[in-house]
Design a protein that fits this description.
Chain A: Pfam families: ABC_tran (PF00005). Chain A: Keywords: ATP-binding, Nucleotide-binding, Transport. Chain A: Belongs to the ABC transporter superfamily. Chain A: It comes from Streptomyces similanensis. Chain A: InterPro entries: AAA+_ATPase, ABC_transporter-like_ATP-bd, ABC_transporter-like_CS, P-loop_NTPase. The structure holds two protein chains of two kinds. By secondary structure, chain A is of the alpha/beta class. Chain A contains nine helices and 13 strands. In chain A, helix 3 packs across helix 4, helix 3 packs parallel to helix 5 and helix 4 crosses helix 5. Chain A is globular, with a radius of gyration of 21 Å. By secondary structure, chain B is mainly α. Chain B has 24 helices and six strands. In chain B, the strands form two sheets. In chain B, strands 1-2-3-4 form a four-stranded mixed beta sheet, with helices on one face. In chain B, strands 5-6 form a two-stranded antiparallel ribbon. Chain B is elongated and about 95 Å long. Chain B starts with 21 loop residues before the first helix and ends in an 18-residue tail after the last helix.
Chain lengths: 287, 524
């Protein structure tokens, strides 16, 4: 696999808060998941990579282009598709007009070719039938797909998706996963999410961030393997567990360092994620 | 951001730049925004009002809305040096709409939180600003087209005289452009949707104040549209408006506002900085050029034509009448001659053949504004004609001419108040296509009953209720019959002191109810 994005030493402070602290990463073709609790620096990292904000220190390249120069930044932006967290819309625009507008801002100047491209991406996100409908009349899931179409227009090689499935119902989330799978083919996709299922289902690599640091970088299987032998079942909550919750069957699922003779369970990606955060001192989610 | 060059692990070919020259992308954005502007209700309404107003003005010759038909009828005889200026005011409507809507469009990304996304796209913010500003250009071009059609319509009229100024014609499109660019700049300076409406109202008050109350010539000309009107059309070379300087000022100002918006949006390129300096220089030059008032030479020339029009006029003889016209109006002598011959045709031989001079006069000393008045001439047989023609000006001229034929000179004609008024009004209106309509038109009260003031190019004359009654009765009767009676009794009808009752009797009109003065208007 070729490396599409290469970053080292990325550091960014907001006032006294360190949002990114010496972040290094390499992204290859395919979908990379970005996990982390709120405030981990995920969105900040995505905004830096999307050239929305410059880092205070460090460097990165996208497809060999250095965004530190005007020409390099332009080249990066021409390879980039960005779906921000809670994207804004122009509600009076139709889906077609909005994506067309974004296509113009991506400097697709040939009108006929641009319109073909807009129709193509709207079809790709299954919005061909409602492309003439105003955005204010679309459902939340449809709007999210419009935003994805806007990110995809111009066929970018590097796609940055910031929590695209947030706020979607299970069916919409499932459909969105299908879309992301399709769009990941032949592209480099960096997918930020709180949903470990998204990562498990979609990503060939995963990065875990906490406190502005990269805590883990590897495959989902490697992250899951971190919890091997550290997940067990018990009738009551184990006080020694780092996290534990009652399952639907009534037993407790515990994550941490199991007592001897514990009834070990098959770990999941979420277990590996929770333990990674806990091992690094970050706050794990305890349910 | 400190950047170090990090070589990728393997050379990856970037996506081909999807656009061509970046300027084309800006034009594509401008077209998109222009289409969006056209869908804004405010623009649509003002656009429609502007177009309808202009079409209506073209047809009627009126600048306002108060007349539904072209009663004044002067549209057929435009002075092109005024027609160019009359295209300007109505464009302000469209300009205000574009100011508001271009401002709103430029704020759209901020209001609807798409800036976070759009900020990562290839088009720089300053190019987006440029796209917004250029989106107004189609509207300016439309305004230019409307101006061209309107002026062309006037210029192609057979009765058109004079010369228009391309700089005056440029004011409408430039004003539209200025308003739109100002809206975009305001969006970049004050990112609030309330700023534009507030500023529009404030500007209106300020501009109105500067136009209505300001005495200063130079502050008056800072306004985009300086609509000087009210006076009679002046010869082109006496207009004295700094139209070219004003067009330069507006062009410079538009460029300056645009550059300010681009700089504010981060477009700090050498070209934009140079353009800013150039725009500033053009604006300053425009202000300097348009600020001085009329020169001494111009004022002298205006005085000369006002006091001694004969010194610049060209005269032509047609029959017993000499027509002296200002150089740009010589083509109108045929229209004057037609009116003269109509009046003469109703008079008996000697009177009909009496030598007359039609002298064109214009009051240029007070410039383009003000309500000019002309003292009646005392030279025998010399009649005043103004620089306007068509509509009411025709019966007014005919009345002045008829009173001169009857009384000997213009001043004496204005003092006629006895029964001779009947002969004057018959000569003036008897041969008209619509005599009663013309009677109504020439009277100040627009009626055919009661006493009223009758307008002429100079002082006018009074017409009593009795005289009105007799004249209206004559105008109802067959023209040949009345003409024969008038010609037969001309001497008595035009004798000073003849009473209206006697005139009525001579012409076979019932003389009842004419009052103690015998129907004369001398005591009114």
């Amino acid at each position: 696999m070729t490396v599409t994005v290469s970053a080292s030493g990325l550091t960014l402070r907001y006032g006294g808060t360190v949002a990114l602290d010496d972040v290094a990463l390499r992204l290859e073709e395919g979908i990379t998941g970005l996990l982390g609790p709120n405030g981990a620096g995920k969105t900040t990292l995505l905004r830096v990579l999307a050239t929305a904000v410059p880092a205070d220190r460090g460097a990165f390249t996208v497809l060999g282009h250095d965004p530190g120069t005007a020409a390099g930044r332009l080249a990066v932006r021409r390879t980039l598709g960005y779906l921000p967290q809670n994207p804004g819309f122009h509600p009076d625009f139709t889906a077609f007009a909005f994506v067309d507008y974004v296509a113009i801002l991506k400097e697709l100047t040939d009108r006929a070719a641009r319109h073909r491209e807009v129709r193509r991406v709207l079809a790709e996100v299954d919005l061909a039938d409602v492309r003439g409908r105003r955005i204010k009349r679309l459902s939340g899931g449809m709007r999210q797909r419009v935003a994805l179409a806007a990110a995809l227009v111009g066929d970018p090689r590097f796609l940055v998706l910031d929590e695209p499935t947030a706020g979607l119902d299970p069916e919409q989330r499932m459909r969105f996963r299908e879309l992301i799978t399709r769009t990941g083919e032949g592209r480099t996709v960096l997918l930020s999410t709180h949903q470990t299922e998204d990562v498990a289902m979609l990503c060939h690599r995963v990065i875990v961030m906490a406190g502005g640091h990269v805590r883990f970088e590897g495959t989902p299987a490697e992250l899951t393997a971190r919890a091997a032998g550290r997940v067990w079942s018990s009738a009551e909550r184990d006080p020694g567990a780092r996290a534990g919750w009652r399952t639907g069957a009534g037993a407790f699922r515990n994550v941490g360092d199991p007592p001897e003779g514990a009834d070990l369970l098959e770990p999941t990606l979420e277990d590996g994620y929770l333990l990674t955060l806990d091992d690094t001192g970050a706050q794990a989610v305890t349910r | 951001m400190t950047t170090t060059v990090t070589a990728p692990d393997a050379a990856v070919t970037p996506a081909a730049a999807p656009g061509g020259p970046r300027a084309r992308a800006v034009l594509a954005l401008a077209l998109f925004e222009a289409r969006d502007l056209l869908q804004q209700i405010v623009v649509l309404v003002f656009f429609t009002v502007y177009t309808v107003a202009v079409v209506r003005q073209m047809i009627s010759g009126h600048l306002g809305w108060h007349e539904l038909t072209g009663r004044e009828g002067m549209a057929g005889y435009p002075a092109l040096q005024d027609a160019d200026r009359e295209t300007q005011t109505s464009a302000v409507l469209l300009g205000v709409a574009l100011f508001l809507c271009a401002n709103r469009a430029a704020l759209r990304s901020r209001r609807q939180d798409t800036d976070r996304h759009f900020g990562t796209l290839a088009m720089d913010p300053w190019r987006r600003t440029l796209g917004h500003a250029l989106s107004v250009v189609p509207f300016a071009l439309f305004s230019g087209l409307i101006v061209a059609v309107r002026f062309g319509w006037a210029a192609l009229r057979p009765g058109a005289v004079g010369h228009g100024s391309v700089f005056e014609l440029a004011v409408s499109p430039l004003t539209v452009l200025l308003c739109g660019v100002a809206g975009v700049l305001l969006a970049r300076l004050v990112p609030s949707a309330f700023a534009a409406p507030l500023l529009a109202v404030t500007s209106y008050v300020v501009v109105l104040d500067s136009l209505v109350f300001a005495d200063s010539h130079w502050t008056q000309w800072l306004s985009p549209v300086v609509a000087e009107s009210g006076g009679d059309p002046l010869p082109s070379d006496l207009i004295g408006r700094p139209a070219a300087w004003h067009a330069l000022y507006l062009t410079g100002l538009i460029a300056l506002l645009l550059c300010a918006a681009l700089l504010r949006s981060g477009g700090r390129t050498a070209r934009i900085k140079a353009a800013t300096a150039l725009a500033l220089a053009a604006t300053a030059a425009g202000i300097a050029g348009q600020s001085p008032g009329p020169s001494a030479a111009l004022q002298a020339a205006r005085a000369q034509v006002s006091e001694h029009p004969e010194s610049v006029e060209r005269c032509a003889v047609r029959g017993a009448t000499t027509y002296c016209a200002l150089p740009e109006w010589t083509g109108r002598t045929a229209d004057w001659a037609e009116a003269v011959e109509r009046v003469r045709s109703l008079a008996p031989g000697a009177a009909a053949a009496r030598p007359l001079t039609v002298r064109q006069r214009v009051e240029a000393r007070y410039g383009l504004e003000g309500d000019p008045s002309y003292d009646p001439l005392t030279a025998p047989g010399v009649v005043t004609v103004g620089t306007r023609w068509g509509g009411n000006r025709v019966p007014e001229f005919s009345t002045g001419l008829a009173s001169t034929l009857v009384a000997g000179d213009e001043k004496a004609g204005g003092e006629v108040c006895d029964g001779r008024v009947v002969a004057v009004m018959w000569l003036a209106l008897g041969a008209a296509d619509d005599p009663l309509g013309q009677l109504r038109a020439v009277r100040l009260d627009d009626s055919t009953e009661g006493g009223s003031y009758v307008l002429t190019p100079t002082s006018g004359l009074l017409m009593s209720a009795g005289q009105t009654k007799v004249v209206a009765e004559l105008l109802h009767r067959p023209r040949a019959e009345v003409t024969a009676r008038v010609k037969a009794r001309w001497t008595e009808l035009t004798r000073p002191g003849v009473s209206t009752a006697r005139a009525a009797e001579l012409l076979g009109v019932a003389a009842t109810g004419l009052g103690a003065e015998g129907g004369n208007s001398c005591s009114e």
